[in-house]
Design goal:
The chain is α/β, with parallel strands linked by helices. 37% of the residues lie in helices and 24% in strands. Helix 5 links the parallel strand 9 and strand 10. The model has no long low-confidence stretch (mean pLDDT 98). It binds guanine and zinc ion. The site of zinc ion has 6 residues, from strand 5.
């Protein structure tokens, strides 16, 4: 049956709720307790307090919370194997753990198994859309897109570009990168719910010639994205300054090649100055804030508010395997702590918006994902407010909606997830 109705508390956003003291009537917050969400042909068809007629397949989840599926704007498919690796900062972590793990993806069988496992893991954490790094290998992109297409998921990804400062089995060349990228764009970009992202790993692993290629590809293929890492770690910053002595800043290395625009998703952005932030704002680029990774690798505390004040969009990302969980709830809890260390309090509404509608708007995909708007795809996650005695005690003591949802964001994780729907199909849970 293509007509489905789910009864639950519906929570989503119609606009950015901002940073002001959260209340249960914050602007942009759309709260519809005990409603039926109607899904027809994979899209959201409406919401109403009364039960629809029996022509709808009805799921009664009274007392649970239904939200749009989360959007993870920066995560690495081949890094589930290196999550929770001990003892190093970024550059050493890449060399010691990450590059060796990614070398295994030269094997298409590893790519296929890794992609399926990765996407199923996202769904098990309530994430229905993502901006993803595969590896340098063309087969890893084919496998990831094929697995996303099978599941009907919205996915943005592309072949990792790296033509220096990496082990031999993990490098390409300008020519092979151009050939592989062009073939992959033709095969996958715009197919189903898939979009191509030119994927510069980070400035140290690309020559100027390869960065120029990425700029040409981005300009030549409208609708494609650009993803990379920027200004994550201080040793990385010093290395970039050595490799690109003429650039004003790390961000400028990318800007000079036309890589910073409205379709650019830049992970981290911890170590920026005011000029960098102004450039991002003018370009309409997006920072994927990765608080869990920044804490785990000891990278630093990104200044979310300063980025936004300069006009840049900020979304939230797990950055697994630098990050320690695929759970966007845990990511939000870490974001709260990172901002607290900067002296700023992150409302649950702001965090949830950044992981849903905010990310969708920044990606130009808000007519498709990120909210419970009529016409959007029914990419949904159904949650229990509390699991276990501690969270249950906290939930019962909550005296406002924000208190309740903030406790979910702080204490919750994938154990709270009841089911995940992609385009109205239940792909996890029941
Ligand atoms: N910078 C370059 N590559 C990576 C990566 O795989 N993870 C993180 N966190 N930073 C990077
Ligand atoms: Zn990353």
């Amino acid at each position: 049956m293509s007509r489905l109705a789910i009864r639950a508390d519906l929570l989503d956003f119609t606009a950015d709720p901002g940073w002001s003291a959260p209340s249960d009537v914050s602007p942009g917050l759309r709260w519809r307790p005990d409603h039926w969400l109607l899904v027809d042909g994979g899209r959201i068809a409406g919401a109403q307090p009364e039960a629809p007629d029996t022509s709808w397949l009805r799921h009664d989840h009274r007392g649970r919370l239904l939200m749009p599926g989360f959007i993870d704007t920066h995560v690495h498919m081949p890094q589930l194997e290196v999550i929770a690796s001990y003892g190093t900062e970024l550059l050493h972590w890449l060399e010691t753990y990450t590059f060796p793990a990614e070398l295994r993806y030269a094997d298409p069988a590893v790519c296929a198994a890794g992609s399926s496992r990765f996407l199923d893991a996202l769904l098990m954490h309530g994430t229905t859309a993502a901006v993803v790094f595969p590896t340098v290998h063309k087969a890893s992109v084919d496998a990831l897109f094929a697995a996303a297409d099978e599941r009907g998921m919205r996915l943005v990804a592309g072949k990792c570009l790296m033509d220096r400062n990496a082990p031999p089995g993990l490098t390409d060349t300008v020519d092979s990168a151009e050939r592989d990228s062009t073939a992959l764009i033709e095969r996958w970009h715009g197919r189903g719910r898939l979009a191509y992202a030119h994927t510069v790993r980070f400035a140290p692993t690309s020559t100027d010639a390869q960065l120029a290629l990425a700029g040409r590809l981005l300009a030549a293929h409208p609708g494609t994205y650009l993803q990379t890492h920027v200004a994550e770690n201080r040793d990385e910053l010093a290395w970039v300054a050595e490799l690109f002595p003429d650039a004003r800043s790390y961000l400028d290395v990318y800007a000079r090649h036309g890589l910073i625009g409205a379709r650019s998703v830049l992970a981290h952005g911890v170590w920026f100055d005011a000029d960098d932030r102004a450039l991002l704002g003018r370009a309409g680029a997006q920072i994927a804030h990765c608080p869990s990774s920044n804490l785990f690798l000891g990278s630093g505390l990104a200044d979310w508010r300063a980025l936004e004040d300069a006009g840049a969009a900020v979304s939230l990302a797990s950055d697994v395997g630098g990050g320690t969980s695929l759970s966007m709830l845990r990511t939000m809890a870490d974001a709260y702590k990172v901002q607290a260390l900067r002296g700023v309090r992150l409302p649950a509404w702001k965090a949830l918006h950044a992981a849903t509608r905010g990310a969708a708007v920044a990606l130009g995909l808000d007519r498709e994902i990120g909210s419970l708007d009529v016409g959007c795809m029914a990419d949904l996650a159904l949650w229990q407010y509390a699991v276990g005695p501690v969270a249950t005690a906290r939930d019962e003591a909550a005296s406002s909606l924000h208190e309740r949802v903030f406790a979910l964001m702080t204490l919750g994780d994938e154990r709270n997830l009841v089911s995940t729907f992609v385009a109205g199909r239940c792909l996890y849970g029941a």
